[in-house]
Design a protein that fits this description.
This protein has 11 helices and 17 strands. The protein is an alpha/beta fold and 430 residues long. It folds into 2 domains: 173 residues, Rossmann fold (3-Layer(aba) Sandwich), CATH 3.40.50; 182 residues, 2-Layer Sandwich (Dihydrodipicolinate Reductase, domain 2), CATH 3.30.360. The strands form 4 sheets. It has a 7-stranded mixed beta sheet with strand order 11-17-16-12-15-14-13, sandwiched between helices. The protein is globular and about 60 Å long.
Length: 430
């Protein structure tokens, strides 16, 4: 059994190095000469980062991620202060509960009127990393009921500053790259061509797992399933998170990630019928739900009134299933069948509740590692694939459960040796 598990280690990750990351121009996080007591000395200046946000209000993603760079957070039971300085912020919208002005005033952060101003364009791009956090806010939807978050448009504004200044820095994009998989692919291609680091994705792959499992690279997965519960019209919001859970596990299968052949979105009785026809596994669902602390009592078929499913066929024949079962669980449960193994691999991807929402702790720490090195701790191709699957799943739903195939799903990449998920304590040590 243990042959399919990586050894669980409680070793600490390397701290983020306090050096600037550049591909051209001045390294603004580098040593700077200053006068101390009349004598010249060289001191290390913290790398400077900026936050480009949709909104900055209580419980928004910007509040949780940018806020952790300001206030710090808990790591291994103790306070951790990121070795970065958040110097500027730009917020696209100012809701009634806007906290941007007060937070910036209290912490000496410049609140900017434009994205180029936030990047310090007139100073030649005087920062070392960009947080692009476009989640929450008042945005329209398209005919597929997708929220039209302008992540691509703001990414392009950042890139224009790169081009004008002749310098680039790493960019982190919160959640999926874009609601449109074609725009998402353009973002990845731009980063490749201009040779700057690009990181994106959900907090789910790096949050705590109960139990702490990490399959070894090359695990011969046959089928994986993720269950979760979300009640709302914007299905893609949590569907993307579920896909990130599925992908961060199945990408470790034998042969690596070779892409997806098709996706199919089902609703209502069609979900149960697909299970009865063994198009997805009831056994895996039972195993995944068994890991969920919020699991409801009673049969799934009785409790869940409007089930939803996404059926995924990978190019190598591996099967993937996402089940939205609002009345049955509010957790993210994972289960998988492994060739040659009679037992079922399963775990809960644990999300501590708001207002603290401590699952942003591991995400922020992985962003720190990215800003320190310029290289994402896990490949952006994972998020490109999950972004693409999310977009095409919404197309399948819009077109009455049509099986969708598209060459854009043929994304290949190698999984990281270490997933970067947090082990150990969640709460502060006494």
């Amino acid at each position: 059994m243990n042959q399919f598990h990586a050894e669980i280690s409680r070793r600490s990750f390397l701290g983020a190095a306090a050096t600037g990351v550049v591909t051209s121009g001045l390294a603004f996080g580098a040593d700077q000469p200053v006068a101390v007591g009349g004598l010249p000395e060289t001191v290390k200046r913290k790398p400077r980062i900026v936050a480009i946000n949709s909104v900055y209000r209580l419980k928004s993603h910007a509040y949780h991620i940018a806020g952790r760079f300001i206030h710090g957070y808990t790591r291994n039971g103790f306070h951790h202060q990121p070795p970065f300085e958040l110097v500027r912020m730009w917020n696209h919208q100012q809701p009634v509960a806007d906290l941007g002005p007060s937070v910036c005033d209290q912490h000496g952060i410049e609140l900017c009127k434009t994205i180029p101003q936030a990047l310090g364009e007139k100073h030649g791009l005087d920062i070392d990393g960009v947080l692009l956090i476009i989640e929450h806010g008042d945005y329209p939807k398209n005919d597929r009921n997708q929220l039209l978050y302008p992540r691509y448009e703001f990414f392009e504004q950042i890139v224009e500053v790169f081009k004008k200044t002749g310098r680039t820095v790493p960019i982190f994009v919160d959640k999926h790259l874009s609601y449109d998989h074609k725009l998402a692919a353009k973002m990845v291609q731009t980063a490749r061509e201009m040779k700057f680091g690009l990181m994106a994705g959900s907090s789910l792959p790096v949050t705590w797992r109960r139990p702490e499992i990490e399959p070894t690279l090359g695990t011969p997965f046959k089928e994986g399933l993720v269950c979760f519960g979300y009640e709302g019209k914007a299905v893609e919001i949590y569907l993307f998170h579920a896909l990130e859970v599925l992908q961060c596990m199945l990408e470790r299968r034998k042969g690596g990630e070779t892409g997806v052949k098709s996706v199919e979105f089902l609703e209502g009785d069609a979900v149960w019928e697909a299970g009865d026809e063994e198009r997805w596994s009831w056994r895996l669902l039972d195993a995944a739900l068994a890991r969920c602390p919020s699991k409801n009592t009673g049969p799934v078929r009785e409790n869940v009134l409007t089930p939803q499913a996404l059926l995924i066929e990978y190019e190598d024949g591996t099967q993937g299933t996402i089940l939205n079962l609002f009345e049955q669980t509010s957790d993210f449960g994972f289960a998988a069948n492994i060739e040659g193994w009679s037992e079922t691999l399963s775990s809960c991807f644990y999300l501590p509740s708001p207002p603290g929402a401590r699952f942003f702790d591991p995400l922020t720490y992985n962003i720190e590692k990215f800003f320190a090195s310029g290289t994402p701790p896990y490949p952006v191709e994972r998020t490109l694939l999950t972004s693409t699957m999310t977009d095409l799943a919404m197309l399948s739903l819009h077109e009455k459960s049509r099986v969708v195939t598209d060459p854009a799903l043929s994304i290949r990449y190698a999984a990281p040796k270490d997933s970067g998920f947090f082990r150990g304590p969640i709460v502060d040590a006494e």
